[in-house]
């Protein structure tokens, strides 16, 4: 089968950063389904894992953690899907990725593809939707059905992949959304997604948020990096919560968190499949819920660029665009 893989970790402008290879077609066992991949999207996690380092893989390594496709075969313990079903998923970072014609993935972290979306549109959603959903509803314990309607949330990194779906989920839950964006095109994007207010993360955020009339916000989601930690601590209300998706070696002073009895939550959407947690099927359930919301017209896909076909050249280009730091929404690569 066709696949895009690496053996060395190289700068993205190196033509050997990714290679087109032929690999054996895998066979599903246990709870695995075999998916014929139709489209994939590229996320910052892909670029972080591919970042240059002094390491050589003994066999080609396939990256990619976002896909939409069709079930080709199922393992003997599979009960949720059957061949022919259309699915979407983010997968498991400890296993071979989605940049290949056929991929094995555990049924418990797979959802049904939204009926109203193409495979390219569906591939833009799983990783970011799981991340934002878990961040808001599992970590911060926001009620997605509106019990916390009227509370405020500051989403730092509003125009990125996670922020783009996060704005929609927060608005659907009834929150007042303050999103950060710094360029005219990203400001327009987050407003179109439903942000109530926009502040510029390239300028001091505390003054801007307080200028909107918020002394504090009920929740903060850091969906880019931790350089905004001090602003987040200053703005979170006493007994509020901050969730972040970024690991960091930057200082994270905690005195302000302690004095407010505020909570810090880490969101890592691969934690459930990586550790085979007893509740890993929650990702199947939440992806099905996202599909329902999409098909009902309450959420929309966030793809902004589609490349074709799925080959080394286009995967390199997608990584290059992500590394530019100027992407809006999601980049998808479709079709082998």
TrEMBL record:
Transmembrane segments: none annotated. Pfam families: ADH_N (PF08240), ADH_zinc_N_2 (PF13602). The keyword ATP-binding does not apply. InterPro entries: ADH-like_N, ADH_Zn_typ-1, ER, GroES-like_sf, NAD(P)-bd_dom_sf, Quin_OxRdtase/zeta-crystal_CS, YIM1/Zinc_Alcohol_DH_Fams. Residues 13-333 form the Enoyl reductase (ER) domain. Belongs to the zinc-containing alcohol dehydrogenase family. Quinone oxidoreductase subfamily. NCBIfam families: adh_fam_1 (TIGR02817). PANTHER family: ALCOHOL DEHYDROGENASE RELATED (PTHR11695), RETICULON-4-INTERACTING PROTEIN 1, MITOCHONDRIAL (PTHR11695:SF294). This is Zinc-type alcohol dehydrogenase-like protein. It comes from Rhodoplanes serenus.
């Amino acid at each position: 089968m066709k696949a895009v893989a690496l053996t060395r970790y190289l700068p993205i402008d190196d033509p050997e950063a990714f290679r087109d290879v032929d690999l054996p077609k895998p066979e599903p066992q246990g709870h695995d389904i075999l998916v014929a991949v139709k489209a994939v999207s590229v996320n910052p996690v892909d670029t972080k894992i591919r970042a240059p380092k002094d390491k050589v893989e003994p066999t080609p390594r396939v990256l990619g953690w976002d896909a939409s496709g069709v079930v080709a075969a199922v393992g003997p313990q599979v009960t949720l899907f059957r061949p022919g079903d259309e699915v979407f998923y983010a997968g498991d970072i400890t296993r071979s990725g989605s940049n290949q014609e056929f991929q094995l993935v555990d049924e418990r972290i797979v959802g049904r593809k939204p009926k109203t979306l193409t495979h390219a549109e569906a591939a833009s959603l799983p990783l970011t939707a799981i991340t934002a959903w878990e961040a808001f509803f599992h970590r911060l314990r926001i009620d997605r059905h509106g019990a916390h309607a009227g509370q405020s949330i500051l989403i730092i990194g509003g125009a990125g992949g996670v922020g783009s779906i996060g704005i929609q989920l927060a608005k659907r839950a009834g929150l007042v959304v303050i999103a950060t964006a710094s360029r005219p095109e990203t400001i327009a994007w987050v407003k179109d997604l439903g942000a109530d207010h926009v502040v510029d993360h390239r300028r001091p955020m505390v003054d801007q948020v307080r200028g909107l009339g918020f002394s504090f916000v009920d929740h903060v989601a850091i969906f880019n990096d931790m350089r905004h930690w001090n602003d987040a601590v200053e703005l979170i209300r006493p007994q509020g919560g901050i969730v972040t998706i970024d690991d960091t070696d930057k200082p994270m002073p905690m005195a302000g968190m302690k004095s407010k009895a505020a909570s810090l939550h880490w969101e890592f959407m691969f934690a459930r499949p990586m550790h085979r947690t007893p509740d890993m099927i929650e990702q199947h359930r939440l992806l099905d819920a996202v599909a329902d919301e999409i098909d009902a017209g309450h959420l929309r896909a966030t793809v902004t660029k589609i490349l074709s076909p799925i080959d080394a050249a286009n995967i390199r280009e997608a990584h290059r665009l992500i590394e530019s730091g100027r992407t809006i929404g999601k980049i998808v690569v479709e079709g082998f």
